[in-house]
Amino acid sequence: MAKSNKKKELFVELLTPHKDTLHRVCKNLIWNRNDIEDALQTTVLNAYKSFDKFEEGSNFKAWIFKYLINTVLNFNKKYTRLNVFETGVEETIDKTTIPPSGQESLDVLEMLERENIYHEILENPFKLLESIDKRMKDSLHKLNAAERTVFLLKSLVDFSYKEMASVLEIPIGTVMSHLYRARAKLRESLCDYAREKGLFRNKEA
Q: In total, how many domains does the chain have?
């Protein structure tokens, strides 16, 4: 009994700092809002059942988020057969990609302003999500599931590429590709909105 209580206390101690972030990530990945609490409870229950396999002193954050991602994917499978992270080859980032239509004609100062606002968004994602409304939610959900997952794990959980690759069980190159694409898409959809709403003060270039 004492050993069981100690296990429970340690699990709760390690889990508590991540509860809010688990909820935020789950809320933005789950397709059916009615599944959020069930998915979180399933995540915690499955992780606790396997807690004996966790090596004390190792990366609990990556360990628990792996359970969350697997749980969310299983819940979302009710609505599709597609495994969004299934890949046979490692994707690469094409740094010579042509800018989105219209961007090449932007005034240089406006482009710098967009970059400044965008980097503030990345540096303070909680401020962005706390002020979110339907239009902002739509911007996130226009990303495909893989892009949205990688973006949230990087922005909200601050995982390294290696940690994300481990959690999602995909190559690091694929993680980088998903994140690159997510940021490129969000840059256009979020920067104009953030400036319009006055969510962030523009920095001087």
A: 2
